[in-house]
Structure formats: structure tokens, C-alpha cells
Amino acid sequence: MEIVLHPIGARDVRAALPARRADGHKGTFGKLLIVGGSVGYTGAPYLAAEAAVRSGCGLTYLGVPSYIWAVEAVKCVSAMPFPLPDAEGRLCADACEPILQRLAACDVLALGPGLGRSAGVDALVQRVLHECPLPLVLDADGLNAIAEDLSALDARRDRPTVLTPHDGEFARLSGYSLSEIDGPRRAELAREFAVRHGCVLVLKGHRTIVARPDGTLLVNTAGGSALAKGGSGDVLTGVIAALLCQGAAAADAAACGVWLHARAGDLLTEELSAYCVTPQDVATRGLARAFCEVLGQQEKPSL
Questions:
Q1: Lowest CB count within 10 Å: 157, 164, 182, 192, which one?
Q2: What pLDDT score does 303 carry?
Q3: Which DSSP category does 23 fall into?
Q4: Are 125 and 91 in contact (CB under 8 A)?
Q5: What pLDDT, in 10s, does the model give residues 26-66?
Q6: How far is 303 from 301, CA to CA, in rounded Å?
Q7: Containing domain of residue 145, as a range?
Q8: pLDDT number for residue 299
Q9: 198: CB partners within 8 A, 6+ apart
Q10: How far is CA 108 from CA 59, 78, 199, in A?
Q11: Cα torsion for 45, 49, 51, 57, to the nearest 10°?
Q12: Cβ proximity of 56 and 244 under 8 Å
């Protein structure tokens, strides 16, 4: 089958962005549950939550190991952290029930930022994927938790699921080598995986590819090395999840999120240089600029 990559542009993003009702309230714009974090990875869930709020989500809840809950409570102003059962600073299987209970009042789940690795984390992720009825964004160690057994992913064919791996994570998920993934068959391999498993695959990197389960391929031409820093993927997860919460289809949320995240990095690079832009800058400053630009609004200077 011929490989056709459709570039994502500002016009596409503008057309696909969920509308913002003037009479809407916080419930109108969705309720997101982000689950992640562990000892040593307290920044990841915070960045995802901050990006979600900055991307229009009405209510953002953040479930983290009880060991780091106080840290997240200090970091988060607009999101709402709460503690979950943990073992040695990482979530454990006992966290599943409270997560599922929280999901009953939410619209989307983002799972993975900063989870860390353990047998308990793997068991938790597998069960949540099976039982979560909502649209799901799976990132970082959430992806690593299913790499050896994709049955939980396949069980979600009837539920919107977005995976956001970088090359190393995709190698573990797909069984292909890094050289194969970084080679001329990159787009073909992404499409093959998305079709086989019925998911939207966001294969991150220079010229990020968005592969839809119908075989359509999109490519992002925005972005640069300013985003090549730990934490950037957590910001992207928050943006995509927030757009899902506001009613965007999974493929549209992925494409819009990828472009807005990349454009935010480009706009900040003009001011700060690619050396100095941080993921926190992208979440707290760059996204606003990207949204204003794509909507045709001029960003007002800070008071």
C-alpha cells in the first residue's frame, strides 16, 4: 500500500478544535483524570495536569502515589491532586479500585506520566486498560507496562485509545528494532501497528507521525529541538487528553495536540532560543500563544 503522509497545518487544527460555548461551565468542557507519578518523577504528572488545564479542560484530577501527594498538592494550583495506594513510592495494584471509582465521574483518562516501573504498576495498568470504559491516553511507563502483553490494548478496540510512544517505547511495543523504526519504513510501521491494534498511534520525534486505525497517516512539520527535553511528552499527553475531554475525536485530538504542542515550542524558541525553552515554559506560556495564533487572536501582554 502506498504511503501518503498528510501534513498537519494550522487550518486543519482550527477546523478540528472543539468549540468553546460562551455559556459553558466547567462541566461543559470535560472532566479529566490523570494517573501517574512516583518517587523521582514528580514533575511528569504536574506537567500533564498543567497542560490539560491550559488546553481548556474544565476539571482536571490528578491521582498520584500517596508518598508524593504533598509535593503535587504544592505544585498544582488549578488541578486537583489526590493520593492513591502505593508501595515504595510507586502505585500498586490496590490503587485500581479507587481509580475506577474516580473514573465513574470523569470523561477521559490519561495514564502513565512518571509512573515508574514495577510489577505492581504493570498489573495496575493492565487491569485499568481492560476495565476503563472511557477514552484513554496512554503514555510513558503506561506503555512499558503493556509492552510484553498487548491483550489489554486489543481489548479496547471499541473504546478510543491514543498511544504516545517515543522510538524506544515503540520498539518495546512493536518488537521492531530502533534502526527499523528510524528507517525508511517508519511511517509504514506506525500505520501497521495502529491498524492492527485499533488505536491512534502518536509516534513522537522529529516529524511526529499520527497513525489512525483506518490507516490514514498524518505528519507534523512544526516543532524543533526546543522540545527535545524530558517532560515534553508529559505536556503533550495533557494537551491531547484535554482536547478529548472537550469532545474532539481521538484522531483529531492527537493531531491538534501534536501541532499545538510543537507550535508552542516554536513560538517560545523565537524568544528564548531552543537551548532555554523548558517543558514548563511550553505548558504555562507557549500553549497560550499557539492557541491564540491558530484562533486568529492576538495574545495580550501580561499585566
A1: 157
A2: 33
A3: T
A4: no
A5: 899 999 999 999 999 999 999 999 999 999 999 999 999 99
A6: 6
A7: 5-14+24-294
A8: 53
A9: 154, 156, 157, 161, 213
A10: 11, 18, 15
A11: 150
A12: no
Q: Which of 118, 43, 128, 113 is nearest to 86 (CA)?
A: 118
Burial (CB count <10 Å: 0-12, 13-18, 19+), residue 300: exposed
Residue 302 lies in a domain: no
Concatenating the DSSP letter of every residue in 18-55 gives PP--TT--TTTT-EEEEE--BTTB-HHHHHHHHHHHHT
Number of domains in the chain: 1
Stretch 61-80: mean pLDDT: 97
Q: Which residue has the higher pLDDT, 21 or 129?
A: 129
Percent of the chain with pLDDT over 70: 98
The answer for residues whose C-beta is within 8 angstroms of residue 156's C-beta and 6 or more apart is: 129, 136, 198, 199
pTM over 0.70: yes
Query: Residue 268: what pLDDT?
Result: 98
CA distances from 78 to 49, 136, 146, 278 (A): 8, 21, 31, 20
Total residues found in the chain within this entry:
303
Residue type, 188: E
SS (H, E, C) 227-283: HCCCCHHHHHHHHHHHHHHCCCCHHHHHHHHHHHHHHHHHHHHHHHCCCCCCHHHHH
CATH code of 285's domain? 3.40.1190.20
Residue 183 lies in a domain: yes
Q: What is the C-alpha separation between 86 and 28, in angstroms, rounded?
A: 33
Residue 170 CA to residue 178 CA, distance in Å, equals: 9
pLDDT in tens, 167-214: 999 999 999 999 999 999 999 999 999 999 999 999 999 999 999 999
Rg (CA), the chain: 18
Amino acid at residue number 230: G
Examine residue 205 and state whether it is found in any structural domain, yes or no.
yes
**Strand pairing partners for 90?**
87
pLDDT higher than threshold 50 for residue 301: no
